[in-house]
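Researcher: Re-running this chain for the archive, since the previous output was lost when a drive failed. Same request as before.
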Amino acid sequence: MPGILVSPRDNFDDAYRKFKRQCDRNLIVTEARARQHFEKPAETRKKEKIANRKKILKKLYMLRRYESRL
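Model: Regenerated structure tokens:
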């Protein structure tokens, strides 16, 4: 859990910015949004499969684009 130490000379905006940055680094907000609704394991696998396919197609596209330049 992120936490920050605030000295009396620090203002609220700086402290809030530091706290927000720590939350982003620890992926707290994204994990909370993901856990907001239960997702079946089959749906999770399906999304991963689609993401992997997109990644492969993108690599193929970039490779073909690079080869066509030669």
